[in-house]
Amino acid sequence: MVNFNSIEDLIIESERRLISIGQLVKEWEAEKKEISITEVEEKMRTNWGIMKESIILGINNPQKSMGGLIGGEGRRLHDYCLTQKTLSGNLVNLAVARALAVLEVNASMGKIVAAPTAGSSGIIPGVLLTMQEHLGVDDDRVIDALFTSSGFGIIIAQKASVSGAAGGCQAECGSAAGMIAASVVELSGGSPRQAGHACAMVLKNILGLICDPVAGLVEVPCAKRNALGASLSLTCADMALAGIKSVIPIDEVIVTMGEVGRCLPESLRETSKGGLAVTPTGKKIAKKIFTEKK
Amino acid sequence: MGEYGCFDIIGPIMVGPSSSHTAGAVRLGRMAREIAGELPKEVKLMLYGSFAETYKGHGTDLALISGLLGFDTFDERIRSSFTLAKEQGLRFSFITGEKEERFHPNTVKFMITTHAGENLTVIGSSIGGGSVEITEINGHPLRIKGDFPTLITFHNDIPGVISKVSECLARYDINIAFMEVFRKEKRKTATMVVETDEYIPNEAMQEILKIEPISHVRFVQPV
């Protein structure tokens, strides 16, 4: 079985075989798990179905989160971009609205697909559904695109981290944004090499992003970081499709992200002992939640 | 690309908001139910560390009760588990414990009363990404992760018990994947945790129970 130890390995093999990274990763998964490609595709189709359901639920039936800090923002932005002239474009806003909506579903104990984690679960579905509609592609293509995300995510998880406790928010929302940027480049007809550049440009822009949830809950600032992840991924995907290259190669950026994550003090890695969690407002919210609800 | 697969990255499907505080808590509840052998009559749950501090906002309490009801981590009934527990006659209460250094930050102690009137204390922790560990049953230290069918024995710490158990499993063509033995003191009570590739049938369990130094056996399904 071919083994891949870097994004460069994935790109070179995809180029050699004239297939997408998504197709390559899908074959690799089937071979590794000793199951058919159809089975692997069906498993991903189930995930995609749940992702779409979580978007619909979050937009149509917004709920207050368990901690009461978020809820309804996805719907609000969704309605705004359908009725108003937006500044950054309706597509970007729609993707962001959906990312917010999924994170709200997660925070209100709804069903989501961790992608790569629960705290960053809005970015990939929000961007992917919006680009599917925009590009007019079928579910089969979208499912391949999710395998592209998986391939990038696997290398990131191995060389850096996808856990906020280990690497800060860059590891969660940053990884999700980088993964989906690569996917939508391929979905839009870009090359494996361009997908790599898109992911690299995302990760370069979120290097050092800390994980500092207010009151320890996956609500603030997690929802808005999902929003930013969604918009950043589209900006970087467009740059890559235009032919812009990341000067620092993707694999070097990933290793750097891991190093930066390890340099972050523990207070800024999901412990709620630093960052926004210890602002006067953050502390007030934490106190209120714990005294009211214990 | 060795240790991770595609569905570790895109997946699992779960009810939010947190893999450690929600999904992990469901699995701990399920393991406690498995160890009790049935839905308990009554359970007091003592929460420690981050579980104690943030359980309401993460739905950790709803998740633990869901596990005791036998739900999966992706079951949308998790949100309404308190009502469902009352319907099924499970009495439960939550208390928060003082910090204990020996415990992982996300730890729960289940104090269970079964319908047969048996009292059972189970301690477990959610150790990240939905992975869990049971670390104590009735004061006996051990480690059960819930990824494999698991046999637990409570026995006197004398020579030969391990070979008798493994001989019995071999006769039923059950392959041992992992095995650990625990005890507090030499030649007093000991526990053995045997994780297997196959389901252990009831007949095999009964035979193991007949092995002289063994006083109790329990079988835990993967959760």
TrEMBL record, chain A:
Domain Serine dehydratase-like alpha subunit: 19-277
Protein family membership: Belongs to the iron-sulfur dependent L-serine dehydratase family.
Keywords (A to Z) from UniProt: 4Fe-4S, Gluconeogenesis, Iron, Iron-sulfur, Lyase, Metal-binding
Class of this enzyme: lyase
Pfam families reported for this sequence: SDH_alpha
Enzyme nomenclature, EC number: 4.3.1.17
Protein's UniProt name: L-serine dehydratase
Pathway the protein takes part in: Carbohydrate biosynthesis; gluconeogenesis
From TrEMBL, chain B:
Tagged with keyword Zinc-finger: no
Pfam families for the chain: ACT, SDH_beta
GO BP: gluconeogenesis
Domain ACT: 150-223
InterPro entries: ACT-like_dom_sf, ACT_dom, ASB_dom_sf, Fe-S_L-Ser, Fe-S_L-Ser_bsu, Ser_deHydtase_bsu
Pathway the protein contributes to: Carbohydrate biosynthesis; gluconeogenesis
GO molecular function, a single term: 4 iron, 4 sulfur cluster binding
Family assignment from sequence similarity: Belongs to the iron-sulfur dependent L-serine dehydratase family.
Protein name per its UniProtKB record: L-serine deaminase
UniProt organism field: Desulfonispora thiosulfatigenes DSM 11270
